[in-house]
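Lay summary. Proteins are chains of building blocks that fold into shapes, and those shapes determine what they do. In this project we predict the shape from the chain. Here is one chain we studied, written as its sequence of building blocks.
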Amino acid sequence: MIGDPAAIEAFIRENTQIVSPPLVPELRLRLATEMVPIWQASETTLEEIGIEPPYWAFCWPGSQALARLLLDEPERVAGRRVLDFAAGSGLAAIAAARSGATGIANEIDPVAMAAIVMNAALNDVSVALEPGDLTASHQGRWDVVLAGDVCYQRGMAERAVAWLRGLAAAGSEVLLADPGRSYLPAHGLEAVARYTVPTSLDLEDRVNRECVVWRVQP
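And here is the predicted shape, written in a compact code that computers can read:
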């Protein structure tokens, strides 16, 4: 059942391997190395332990771009409280912690949260957890907010971007990394960095994605 931490951890271990993301080779994560098996495993165990679609098991271009930026320029976040929104594997939060920040990972999926804890341990850092849907409130307690690949669905993009703009208006620095998703807003973004991120044809329609890290304006 979903409340059984041992079952969740066992599921993660059985369906992932420890690998390094191509753009961030200095970090390690538990990831799916073939797409179909873990999706099938998730379907068969859904009723048993409540597995959601395992987005956390893949290292999406946006999170890689954010992690690369923080590791290359740690002064951006050192000594600051950094939230990795919709963190997935937790890569950006882990990179923030490695860069001297207090890394905080947000996810709505308890399996993703368990994976983040395991991934943080792999990299000898501690990441705080902030579970649940944070977009219902504009009250943030973070100096920097990171969001990668959140513009792939219209509803999600509109809700997330509105929330991120609210945080920017309240004084947080908000960095949104996007590899050209359909619902990226056309205005109110300032380019900070650009990366070519190697990708898998299991997940994308090409072998590389051009990913831009944007600063979100209020």
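What the prediction tells us: The helical segments are 5-15, 35-49, 61-72, 91-98, 110-122, 154-169.
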